[in-house]
Amino acid sequence: MAVLRWLTPRRRSATARSVLAGEASAEAARKSAEAAEAAQTVRETDSGAAEPEFPVHGDERAAAFFDLDNTVMQGAAIFHFGRGLYKRKFFETRDLARFAWQQAWFRLAGFEDPEHMQDARDSALSIVKGHRVSELRSIGEEIYDEYMAERIWPGTRALAQAHLDAGQKVWLVTAAPVEIAQVIARRLGLTGALGTVAESIGGVYTGKLVGEPLHGPAKAEAVRALAAAENLDLSRCAAYSDSHNDIPMLSLVGHPYAINPDSKLRKHARELEWRLRDYRTGRKAAKVGIPAAAGVGAVAGGTAAAIALHRRRR
C-alpha cells in the first residue's frame, strides 16, 4: 500500500474504496463458483484471416473476463432488473418511468453514463433495503427469463463458449448487483461473476454497498485479485467489453477484445491493434489486429485486509 502515500486524502479514500470493491467482488465470485461447471460451442472467427489458435486448449492458467451490459447482453442488467421488481410491486410508477428513461438513454448513447448508472444503483439499493438476499436471488431467476434471456448477444456467447470448450474459466465482470450477475452467469453456463456487492447482515440487505460499485478501475482491481487467487497468468487471459470505461480491465490482459465498442473504445482498440467484434448490425466481426500483452499501473495491495473485512460484514 506504499503507493497510497503519494495520494491526497480524498484520492486515497477513493482508491481504497476501489480496492475494497474489487476484493469484495472477487471473494463473492469465487464463493459462488465453487460448485459451478463449464459447458460448450463454437468460436466466431474472421473468414480468411490466419491467426494463432485462441483460446489455447488446455491452458489452465488462462481465463476470460466479460463485461455484461451491451457486451454479453443488450442494454443494462440493472434496468431490466428494475422492470421485474416493478412488476412485483417493489416500487411505484414514477420510479419505473425513471428506469425506462435511463434504459432508453443507455440504448441510444451506447455507453454507460456514470451519473445515470449511479442514480440507478442508488434507486436499486433503496428498493431492496430490508429484503432478504435469498428472495432477490429467487426473483432474479424469474426476471432473467422474462427480460434478459432474449437479449443475450449470440456472438458474444459463442466467444465465451469457446473459452469453456478450451477448458478455461469464464467470469462476468459487471457493475450490476453480484446476485443478478451470478444468475446470468449460471444460466449461460459460465464459471461465475464479479459484481457490485451490496451489504447484508443476517441475510438482509442494509441499503449500503461494500466498497463502491464495480465500475472502471474497480473492475481491474477485481480481476487482478481473482487472478491472484486462481493462480492465473493475466498475459494469457482475455477480456471483453463495449465501453471505454473498461480500458483498465482490458489493459490488464494479453488478449483484449472490443465488443460492440463505443467510439472512444473503438479508437483506442485501433490504436493498440486490439481485436474487435461488432454484433449490432449483423455484419461479420472485423479483425483489428492481434493483441499484445499489456499492463496497467493500477493501485494494488490490501488484498487480505479487504477480503477479511468483507467476511466480517457478511
What would you say about this model in short?
This protein has 314 residues and is of the alpha/beta class.
Description:
It comes from Streptomyces salinarius. Belongs to the HAD-like hydrolase superfamily. SerB family. Keywords: Hydrolase, Membrane, Transmembrane, Transmembrane helix. GO terms for molecular function: hydrolase activity. Residues 31-54 are annotated as: Disordered. By secondary structure, the chain is α/β, with parallel strands linked by helices. Helix content is 46%, strand content 13%. The protein has eleven helices and eight strands. It has helices at residues 9-32, 77-87, 93-109, 114-128, 133-148, 154-165, 178-187, 217-230, 247-250, 263-272, 303-313, and strands spanning 63-66, 169-177, 192-196, 198-201, 204-209, 238-241, 255-259, 275-277. The strands form two sheets. A six-stranded parallel β-sheet has the order 3-2-1-6-7-8, with helices on both faces. The protein has a two-stranded antiparallel ribbon with strand order 4-5.
